[in-house]
Design brief:
Elements: E1 4-5, H1 8-30, E2 35-41, H2 45-60, E3 64-70, H3 76-87, E4 94-97, H4 107-111, H5 125-132, H6 141-154, E5 161-165, H7 172-181, E6 185-189, H8 196-201, E7 205-208, E8 226-229, E9 233-237, E10 240-244, H9 249-252, E11 258-259, H10 266-286
The chain binds nicotinamide-adenine-dinucleotide.
């Protein structure tokens, strides 16, 4: 059996189209231009690439992009003051503070200083609580993208056995909450899980979010299962390097029913969902209809 490839690149493009159409309607009907502010502290090369891509795609869908680049030695007080200004700026509907922050800054404190209604990353403790209690919230972008792909593939996730490998606050835990919200039977596996292969073999849906290259081989996968590979790992490839996921794609593709490739699977969905969250936040802030199908 060869699995269906879930094309995250094409899916993300379709989300961006929906976002752009809604942005155009917001402008025409309500004179609202959704705005996303991204704050980058320091010069982490990977973060710089993410921030550049976010800014570019924000503008491409017709939204306003505000970039704030701060020195690596920026004080916590200065960063909190910037967040406070953005919280009070009516042209800003979404605020994202790029993580990781330099060590001298308290990430939890900074994230929890963002207005929850503008917290388009969905990391504020209020949004975490709202998601956990099944209430309307801002949903973390990467798990939201995974959920959208799974809903598209299955229609309903009700009663399916899902295993999420990884329990981070940004991927594993919110992913599990979202699957539970869609009535899947959810197991969260992590570094202390016993008999991980057996746990994974019982799953109709496997979401791997570990950060260990190709750790999930095909013989852990139940035939016909759907595999969502969140991992992004750079590994040596001759003289160069290449990106691989947390799943051994070559063996898993022979067993799974559907699988996301790396690159081109979950990765492109993350920024698309950030744009979706920003337009949703702009609609909620102005009391106008939010786009359908762009949130959990
Ligand atoms: P993290 O390091 O915060 O969490 C990793 C989790 O994996 C932990 O909960 C840990 O318990 C678990 N784990 C570690 N070793 C394990 C093992 N041997 N068996 C089972 N579980 C184990 O990582 P994260 O931020 O959740 O990211 C996970 C991966 O997803 C990384 O490769 C990261 O680059 C990638 N990622 C991708 C996107 C995207 O846009 N596609 C977004 C976020 C993260």
């Amino acid at each position: 059996m060869t699995a269906i490839l879930i094309d995250g690149k094409a899916f993300a493009a379709s989300i961006r189209e929906k976002v752009a159409a809604h942005v155009a309607r917001l402008k025409a009907d309500h004179d609202i231009t959704p705005g996303l502010a991204v704050v980058l502290v320091g010069e982490d090369p990977a973060s710089q690439v993410y921030v550049r891509n976010k800014g570019k795609q924000t503008v491409e869908v017709g939204m306003a992009s505000f970039e704030h680049r701060l020195d690596a030695d920026t004080s916590e007080a200065d960063l909190l003051a910037l967040v406070d200004r953005l919280n009070n700026d009516p042209s800003v509907h979404g605020i994202l503070v790029q993580l990781p922050l330099p060590d001298h800054l308290d990430s939890d404190l900074v994230i929890n200083s963002i207005d929850p209604a503008k917290d388009v990353d969905g990391f504020h403790i209020s949004n975490v609580g709202l998601l956990g209690t099944g209430q309307k919230s801002m949903v973390p972008c990467t798990p939201l993208g995974c959920l959208m792909m799974l809903r598209d593939h299955y229609g309903s996730l009700s009663g399916l056995n899902a295993v999420v490998i990884g329990r981070s606050n940004i991927v594993g835990k919110p992913m599990a909450q979202l699957l539970l919200g869609d009535s899947a039977t959810v197991t969260i596996a992590h570094s202390r899980t016993k008999d991980l292969p057996d746990v994974v073999r019982g799953a109709d849906i496997v979401v791997a979010a570990v950060g260990r290259p190709e750790m999930v081989p095909g013989d852990w996968i139940k035939p016909g299962a759907t595999v969502i590979d969140v991992g992004i790992n750079r590994v040596p490839n001759g003289e160069k390097t290449k990106l691989v996921g947390d799943v051994d794609f070559a063996s898993a593709v022979e067993v799974a029913g559907a699988i996301t490739p790396v690159p081109g699977g979950v990765g492109p969905m993350t920024i698309a969902c950030l744009l979706a969250n920003t337009v949703t936040a702009a609609c909620r802030a102005n009391g106008v209809d939010e786009p359908e199908g762009l949130t959990a």
